[in-house]
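Q: Here's a chain of 189 amino acids. Please give me its 3D structure as tokens.
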Amino acid sequence: MKEDNVLFLLFVENIALINENASRVLLSEDRLYYKLFPISSGQVISTELYVKLKLSNSDEYFYELVKNRYIGMSISNELLLSEYRKKRRKEPNFFEDCLNNCSLQVSGTLRSAKTVVEFLQGMALDPLMDNDAFYLLSNGAFNVLLNGQKHLEVVTFTKACIEGNFRPLGEKYDIINQSFADAVAIMME
């Protein structure tokens, strides 16, 4: 049987199973299901939303999603800070995977820009973070965040987040502005 036919049959089977029993929930990231079953029905939800709503110890499950390279997850600045500190101590970590989930290309929401700026603010306040390391970290984080973006609204929003979080930080404010300007220059190429 052709692969397209198998996928179609699986799709039809999933729809039949959901319609057969209203208490069933399909975990899927496939937007086609959302067209057939509105989000308000609660019959089709994303894996991340299921973890947040249904499981009591969601932190443990989030780590499983990150470890298995789940893409499109909403990452918190606390998780980024925790994973970066593990990386700095040379412990096993998922910092790169978490940071990649903050890419606007993956998340599609400006909330990621706020998360990245809040994470960088936490690192700027870390007494062990020297200026050169902070520049490299912030520039790398902004490059991941802005990868594939061409919209100036992203730049404006991120700049406003930087202003709100970094203005009182003096030298770190200057460093983050430079690293952001360098990342925007790469974005515009």
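Q: Can you summarize the key feature?
A: The CA atoms of residues 135 and 179 lie 6 Å apart.
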